[in-house]
Amino acid sequence: MIERHSGQMQIVCECGNAQRRIYEADEFDIMVSDARAEGFVIAKVAGEWQHTCQDCATPGRKQRSLL
Known about the structure:
Strand content: 25-35%
Number of strands: 5
Oligomer: single chain
Number of helices: 2
Shape: globular
Order of helices and strands: EEEHEEH
Structural class: alpha+beta
Radius of gyration: 12 Å
Distance between the termini: 19 Å
Largest sheet: 3 strands, antiparallel
């Protein structure tokens, strides 16, 4: 998901892992490029965009849990 606060944004996985940096509204393309470089997988599934961190996207790796 993309979290937005006060004109800034950041890509966050469902598990809670977030990008290392926070971006300004006009840096959307840079944010997506940086997320992919950090290992995030960004894909449209059933009409909705999903943002999955490297830990959750790698088969066989234990996914981080917020619980």
